[in-house]
Amino acid sequence: MGVSFDKIDGVIWYDGKLVPWADANVHILTHGLHYASCVFEGERAYGGRVFKSTAHSERLKASANILDFEIPYSVAEIDVAKQLVIDKNNLPDAYLRPIAWRGSEMMGVSAPSNTIHLAIAAWNWPSYFEPAEKLKGVRMCMAEYRRPDPATTPAMAKASGLYMICTISKHKAERAGYADAMMLDWQGRVAECTGANIFFIKDGRIHTPIADCFLAGITRATAIDLARRRGIEVIERRIMPEELDGFTECFITGTAAEVTPVCEIANWKFTPGKISEQLMADYAAEVQPKGKAAAA
């Protein structure tokens, strides 16, 4: 293990000001800790700029609204704060974690008047998977838990409580020697991975599940756009697990995973090929502040 995350050197933007990393704390009776009244984003900076910063800030605000609270900063203010964190910590290539939560004034399920806090941290975090592993494709298993019915949970928010089953599933996958786990939705259809969206390729076309019970990721949207720029058809539809036999390639997308090919999901095998490799290269070019033209 590396340095504990509470002992990293640097500063964190916390409720409008930069504070030393070690001082960015919350009280043990914080509502967000007990009742998951907490939303967050995962973002990356490349070459000194946060990729799709405004889209992430907008989603953070929207997630908070879904959880019935208002972040007391505008999208523009959040964008500026993220850039400040990158600059002050001298982290041109980094992972960012904006997070907003209900404070500690009241304890109990109902806490409508609690202060809403916002913090933004950034740290060095290389590609989610090692480059060599990425090129040959990662191995995944099937998750025990399913994405819940959106009528039972605020599925369109990037809310911390929704990741409980993801942590359980990813821990179980890693203990079994896999990199991740694929989750089905509440009706048994293919949904996503524990922290990434999933795509399949057949006959030169890309197929991906309809994102109506899980987040339609910002990286997912970028990958779809990049594919369509290449003239590759992208079909969003319901995908059943038994269809996986018919796909030749598979890849996952996310801020942490970026674009990562998959070689195995449980008993299904895939061979990372031309389309996956092309999208990996296009995404790498797209995220660079001066590299957008290379992906066209």
From TrEMBL:
Entry's EC annotation: 2.6.1.42
Cofactor: pyridoxal 5'-phosphate
UniProt keyword terms in alphabetical order: Amino-acid biosynthesis, Aminotransferase, Branched-chain amino acid biosynthesis, Pyridoxal phosphate, Transferase
CDD domains noted in UniProt: PLPDE_IV
PANTHER family registered for this protein in UniProt: AMINO-ACID AMINOTRANSFERASE, AMINODEOXYCHORISMATE LYASE
MF terms in GO: L-isoleucine-2-oxoglutarate transaminase activity; L-leucine-2-oxoglutarate transaminase activity; L-valine-2-oxoglutarate transaminase activity
Biological processes, Gene Ontology terms: isoleucine biosynthetic process; L-leucine biosynthetic process; L-valine biosynthetic process
Pathway(s) served: Amino-acid biosynthesis; L-leucine biosynthesis; L-leucine from 3-methyl-2-oxobutanoate: step 4/4; Amino-acid biosynthesis; L-isoleucine biosynthesis; L-isoleucine from 2-oxobutanoate: step 4/4; Amino-acid biosynthesis; L-valine biosynthesis; L-valine from pyruvate: step 4/4
Name under which the protein is recorded: Branched-chain-amino-acid aminotransferase
SUPFAM superfamilies: D-aminoacid aminotransferase-like PLP-dependent enzymes
Reactions it catalyzes: L-leucine + 2-oxoglutarate = 4-methyl-2-oxopentanoate + L-glutamate; L-isoleucine + 2-oxoglutarate = (S)-3-methyl-2-oxopentanoate + L-glutamate; L-valine + 2-oxoglutarate = 3-methyl-2-oxobutanoate + L-glutamate
Role this protein plays: Acts on leucine, isoleucine and valine.
Recorded family membership: Belongs to the class-IV pyridoxal-phosphate-dependent aminotransferase family.
